């Protein structure tokens, strides 16, 4: 069995597509909202495990820009769950030194959720142990378009700083306090093997890891396994030597 101590090279930035809540509930004859509630418990465990394992940045895909197309009852339930989760997790994050920020559009969120986000971000701003980023109303394509539009309005002649300026504009488009490091490891639960409009720019050289485990069943041992597998990957960033440094596009 893989133990956490087997992790030799910890990815700095781990991103997770938390998929499978609906199927988890349906298999138990329960409403999809019950799956999301169970998913919230798994989320808390994953956050604790990531911090314990030494992950510096953890980005969780909680709600995509396309998820608005779900039935209103499911969307409302998710939004309530996010607000409750932020309320309950803020104190925990403060005591564990975790900074919590939310990336994505804010203009389509209810005022109560927006103020819960503001409250969580302000209360946890000094957290240094891990940066937890929760993606709500997130679309990588939309963020890229917004960044491109913002830069097109201002960009002087090319001088080599474009990647850094683009990363900053991308962050500004989606309320990131500063450009996050590139994603090292991107996980997806629930058996599908796709990115679903998540961190398309930042995950250019991410190692991908998929599991059929449904998100509510995903636990600390699964995360440790993913990190251990990451530690065995050769990352060449287009070069020939294993563990070569990334090119200048990284933040
Ligand atoms: C995808 O699974 C999951 C979502 C769209 C919601 C993710 C939300 C959580 C994990 C809840 C907790 C998160 C926070 C931040 C409180 P799905 O419902 O599409 O599953 P399915 O593919 O089995 O239908």
Describe the structure.
This protein has 251 residues and is of the alpha/beta class. The protein has seven helices and six strands. It has helices spanning 21-27, 32-53, 72-96, 111-123, 140-152, 162-173, 220-231; strands at 13-17, 57-64, 98-103, 130-138, 185-188, 207-210. Strands 3-4-2-1-5-6 form a six-stranded parallel β-sheet, with helices on both faces. Strand 3 (98-103), helix 4 (111-123) and strand 4 (130-138) form a beta-alpha-beta unit. The longest helix has 25 residues, at 72-96. The chain is globular. Mean pLDDT is 91; it is low at 1-7. Bound molecules: farnesyl diphosphate.
For this entry, give a set of tags:
globular, alpha/beta, binds farnesyl diphosphate, 6-stranded parallel β-sheet, 7 helices
Count of individual beta strands: 6
> Runs with pLDDT <50, length 5+?
1-7
The radius of gyration over CA amounts to 18 Å
| Strand residue percentage | 5-15%
Bound molecules: farnesyl diphosphate
Task: Please write out the topology.
Blueprint: E1 13-17, H1 21-27, H2 32-53, E2 57-64, H3 72-96, E3 98-103, H4 111-123, E4 130-138, H5 140-152, H6 162-173, E5 185-188, E6 207-210, H7 220-231
Parallel strand pairs: 1-2, 1-5, 2-4, 3-4, 5-6
Bound molecules: farnesyl diphosphate.
Farnesyl diphosphate binds next to helix 1, helix 2, strand 2 and helix 3.
């Amino acid at each position: 069995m893989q133990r956490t101590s087997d992790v030799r090279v910890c990815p700095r930035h781990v991103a997770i597509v938390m998929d499978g809540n609906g199927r988890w509930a349906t298999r138990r004859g329960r409403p999809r909202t019950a799956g999301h509630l169970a998913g919230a418990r798994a989320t808390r465990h994953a956050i604790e495990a990531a911090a314990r394992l030494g992950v510096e940045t953890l980005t969780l895909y909680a709600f995509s820009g396309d998820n608005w197309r779900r039935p209103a009852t499911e969307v409302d339930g998710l939004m309530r769950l996010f607000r409750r989760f932020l309320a309950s997790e803020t104190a925990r994050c403060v005591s564990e030194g975790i900074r919590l920020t939310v990336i994505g559009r804010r203009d389509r969120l209810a005022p109560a959720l927006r103020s819960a986000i503001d409250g969580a971000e302000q209360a946890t701003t000094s957290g240094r142990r891990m940066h937890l980023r929760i993606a709500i109303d997130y679309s990588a394509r939309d963020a890229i378009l917004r960044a491109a539009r913002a830069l097109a309005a201002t960009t002087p002649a090319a001088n080599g700083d474009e990647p850094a300026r683009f990363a900053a504009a991308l962050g500004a488009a989606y309320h990131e306090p500063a450009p996050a490091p590139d994603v090292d490891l991107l996980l997806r639960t629930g058996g599908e093997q796709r990115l679903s409009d998540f961190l398309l720019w930042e995950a250019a050289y991410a190692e991908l890891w998929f599991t059929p485990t449904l998100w509510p069943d995903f636990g600390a041992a699964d995360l440790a396994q993913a990190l251990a597998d990451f530690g065995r990957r050769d990352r060449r960033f287009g070069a020939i030597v294993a563990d070569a440094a990334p090119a200048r596009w990284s933040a």
